[in-house]
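Try this one yourself first.
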């Protein structure tokens, strides 16, 4: 059976693109956080949509499960196979061509295996901004971004990956090719198939191509770090920037003192330029298409207002690009510092801005009381109400032992607060296998049953990424 499948794949792909040797497969079998390791019968590296479709047809006939994979940087174990050794990984990395930049339509058509950073760079050569931006952009792929509906740091101005997508090309669970590669900003022709596949984490189809929106490159960006003393003034500050800077506000990221302490421990060169380790350090970015002077003056005026209103106690404006980059580096390195420290318990959550104060105050108090000495690594895309409310054991306590004993009650405590505040248990990282069990309770029976019905309709054999997002 196994040999027979491989022989069939050999009729489609050169044998160098069919990885069966253990050493060759290893890099595809463990997720970025090293939380999940699986086995696979083979890792296939197709070079075109027709090859993907032909592979899926073979797997469908054999009832063999397929794990679609991009850069394998996801946080929920969605791209990692199970331990059976019977699943096939289809990694899209060879499908990495920009198909077209349509200047008049302001769109870019891409193969799903294009690395996010390379798309940003390609767009910039034509004077365009491709706004999706996240810490993994050097290795994640647009197919993975679409499949997880990734967020990142520009969402408050440009939306998440779903909002940037106009068209898709998808291979279905039956091995058919759906060509929806249209760059239309309006198309009301019934059910929106594109939006069904975006965020489906490889469970409904394999995304092989996409048409994405482009925007004019801003001519000037100003970045500042400010200190706030509490979350109430931070939200008021956000509202002030939203009111005064409107669409010029392109970044509003929050880092707590505890998050930056972890950075300092592992990356000592990344010192916070603000004085005295404030409780909250906020990174704010304004982008302008008018002039350097216009946006700088606006930033200075809003900051002055914020000082006068007692919302901020300190501010540093980046004086050049390299200092602005160093502010962003400090923010992006929190994830890397956490990985250096040990496997923390992640909570990628969204809370309505009006409930953030209550969420943080109450959850901080409860969790510190129940787990004395615990470290709360709370940071995130505050402009979107998206917190990365991550939990690490007290200093010196073994991560593995702590997580084993406390993972469940920690999640229960945090997620019950999320429900109280009418938030979401996954803001931008998805569900994968990590949050599979909690989904029914979170979404409610009706929504969960509708999701099941969709999965059954599109993938009745349950061969696309089974037991990820939803089990049928
Ligand atoms: P993978 O990890 O390979 O796959 C993710 C899921 O999508 C899996 O379920 C997989 O089966 C499916 N999939 C992949 N490709 C396809 C395809 N072509 N068709 C169908 N299904 C597919 N995420 C954010 O949202 N915001 C952030 O700010 C952010 N920052 C990060 C920072 C770091 C340092 C790291 C390591 C990760 C970060 N992430 C962030 C998480 C991750 O980068 C994103 O989820 C990203 O979109 C995953 O892309 P990928 O190509 O690596 O997908
Ligand atoms: C970020 O915003 C990523 O940096 C990672 O989404 C969050 O480390 C995390 O939990
Ligand atoms: Zn994030």
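Now uncover the answer:
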């Amino acid at each position: 059976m196994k040999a027979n499948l491989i022989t069939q794949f050999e009729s489609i792909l050169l044998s160098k693109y069919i990885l069966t040797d253990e050493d060759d497969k290893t890099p595809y079998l463990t997720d970025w956080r090293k939380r999940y390791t699986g086995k696979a019968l083979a890792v296939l590296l197709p070079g075109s949509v027709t090859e993907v479709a032909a592979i899926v047809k073979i797997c469908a006939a054999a009832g063999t499960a397929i794990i679609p994979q991009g850069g394998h940087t996801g946080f929920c174990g969605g791209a990692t196979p199970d331990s059976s050794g019977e699943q096939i990984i289809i990694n899209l990395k060879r499908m990495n061509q920009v198909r077209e930049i349509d200047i008049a339509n302001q769109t870019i058509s891409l193969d799903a295996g294009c690395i996010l950073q390379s798309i940003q760079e390609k767009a910039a050569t034509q004077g365009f901004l491709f706004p999706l931006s996240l810490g993994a952009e050097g290795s994640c792929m647009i197919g993975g971004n679409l499949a997880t509906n990734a967020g990142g740091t520009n969402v408050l101005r440009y939306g998440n990956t779903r909002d940037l997508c106009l068209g898709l090309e998808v291979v279905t669970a039956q091995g058919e090719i759906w060509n929806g590669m249209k760059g239309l900003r309006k198309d009301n022709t019934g059910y929106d198939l594109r939006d069904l596949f975006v965020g489906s984490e490889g469970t409904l189809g394999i995304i092989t191509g996409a048409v994405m929106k482009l925007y004019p490159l801003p001519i000037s960006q100003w970045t500042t770090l400010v200190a706030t003393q509490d979350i109430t003034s931070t939200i008021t500050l956000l509202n002030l920037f939203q009111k005064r800077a409107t669409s010029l506000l392109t970044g509003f990221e929050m880092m707590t003192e505890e998050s930056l302490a972890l950075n300092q421990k592992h990356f000592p060169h990344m010192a916070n330029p603000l004085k005295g380790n404030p409780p909250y350090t906020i990174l704010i970015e304004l982008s302008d298409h008018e002039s350097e002077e216009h946006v700088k003056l606006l930033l200075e005026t809003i900051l002055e207002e914020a000082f006068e209103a007692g919302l901020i106690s300190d501010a540093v404006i980046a004086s050049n690009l390299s200092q602005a980059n160093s502010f962003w580096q400090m923010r992006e390195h929190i994830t890397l510092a956490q990985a250096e420290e040990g496997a923390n318990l992640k909570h990628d959550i969204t809370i309505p801005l009006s409930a953030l104060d209550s969420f943080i105050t109450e959850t901080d108090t409860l969790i510190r009381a129940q787990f004395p000495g615990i470290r709360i690594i709370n940071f995130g895309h505050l402009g979107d109400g998206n917190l990365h409310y991550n939990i690490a054991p007290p200093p010196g306590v073994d991560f593995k032992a702590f997580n084993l004993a406390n993972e469940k009650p920690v999640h229960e405590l945090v997620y019950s607060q999320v429900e109280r505040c009418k938030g979401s248990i996954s803001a931008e990282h998805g569900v994968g296998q990590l949050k599979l069990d909690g989904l029914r309770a979170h979404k409610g029976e009706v929504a969960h049953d509708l999701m099941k019905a969709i999965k059954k309709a599109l993938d009745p054999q349950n061969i696309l990424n089974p037991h990820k997002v939803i089990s049928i």
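Discussion: The chain has four domains: 2-91, 98-216, 221-333, 342-429. The mean pLDDT is 97.
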